[in-house]
Amino acid sequence: MEKNRAYTILEHIGWGKYNLFAFLHCGFAWGTFSFWFVSTAYVIQGATEEWDFNTFQAGIIGSFIPFGILFGSLSWGYIGDRYGRMYAFKPSAVIVSIGSLLLVFSPNFYLVAIALSLLGFGMAGELTLGGTVFCEFCPPSKRYYMTLLSLFISIGAIAVTLVALLVSLINTSKFYNWRIIVAIGVAIEICVMFFRFFMNETPAFLVSQNRQIEADRILNAISLKNTGKKIDKSDYSSSLNSDEIIIEKVDKKLIKSEESKPNKLFTPPLLKTTVVMGLVYMFAGYSYAGILYFMPEFLEEFSTSTGFAIILAQQCCGIPGVLLSAKLIETRLGRRFTILIFYSLSGLMILFLSFNTNFWFVLIISGAGYFFILIGLSAMFTIGPESFPTSIRSKALALMNVTTRIGGISSPIIIGYFLELSNGKFMGLLCLCVIYITAGVFALLLKETKGQQIG
């Protein structure tokens, strides 16, 4: 039996339309995150062209979104655990819409910086809460679907790359390509924001807060949607286990006492998990940001349309990677060894890009690289939520986003500096390779979560 009673009832109800509804909403949150994250490369390239920046200045632009995500993660994580998942998940889409709209009409570097920072602040909620919300709506036996949620990361990347390719081919207006790409993203984001407001709070969060009546109401709504009937009376109560508060009226002194305790994330038994997981996310975020932001620079030998076509092919290779990852994490490899093997292979493929500039070589090697990256990334995004209990999961994943963005902020600056040097391309790719392999090695220090109960 799961530690949080809500998961037991969700398992009893089984997977159905309601869970698919949650899967799509959380998937679109990750998809729009990926759309904006990848679009940063086109914003950097376009802003460099529009305002004649050098590579180092372009790297500074690339750090504003991670900077916004860094502070957004801290805010949304606190709000999500303190007030509810939807108090963070819904407003984050509004902030992204506002930030992206401001970016379209930014007339100079300073407003671009503000818009990208605001955009990143909202994106933090999309990534942090997307995985948390789906995990808490998902029956435990279907938790490996967390890996499939990463499909939307590839779909978002493919969407923005396809948009960029089409815009580069057909745009004859006076507007720069990057502004049109962002404008299309604004339209997509507003649609996602509208449908987000129909979502309910997760029953697992309500149970962890001892809001039993509200949890029962939502669990019944899920059962009605999935099975056409209410849950059985014997399964209706979402009572907590002995580790949770089990009465409706909780003594305020007890709540105050609980809140005054040191953060569980930084005390045993979660301390090691928090530190190691944070390092895995940080190293992976460093290399992922570097390869995404500067892929147009690494493909500078090709024409703009050819470079975008290569990037589109790369992103498409991520889809079979996600599907394979969903299978691999349930085998003897588990989550940890899947991350180790495929982050290591990702690093090697990235390094090989420095050996040859032949079109087919670049296409095959970079495609294989993205295939391996998405396998490792999907496994990482699965073990993350599974490693922390419901009561602090939002805060924990927010902290993981913070460490990811520390890597993401430093990567464009460091790689941008390398690219200014002679032989800088090799140095930059070697750096990304080593860091990816390091992320895989640290994953071995985590506790395997395949088949484990979570609170």
From TrEMBL:
Topology within the bilayer: Multi-pass membrane protein
Domain Major facilitator superfamily (MFS) profile: residue ranges: 20-450
Pfam family, any one: Sugar_tr
Principal subcellular localisation of the protein: membrane
Phylogenetic placement of the source organism: Eukaryota, Sar, Alveolata, Ciliophora, Postciliodesmatophora
Example GO molecular function: transmembrane transporter activity
Any GO CC annotation of this UniProt entry: membrane
Origin species: Stentor coeruleus
Gene3D superfamilies registered for this protein in UniProt: MFS general substrate transporter like domains (1.20.1250.20)
Compartments, record wording: Membrane
Keywords: Membrane, Transmembrane, Transmembrane helix, Transport
Record-given protein name: Major facilitator superfamily (MFS) profile domain-containing protein
UniProt key word Transmembrane: yes
SUPFAM superfamilies per the UniProt record, alphabetical: MFS general substrate transporter
Matches recorded under InterPro entries: MFS_dom, MFS_sugar_transport-like, MFS_trans_sf
Transmembrane feature ranges: 20-44, 56-79, 86-105, 147-170, 176-198, 270-295, 307-325, 337-355, 361-384, 396-419, 425-446
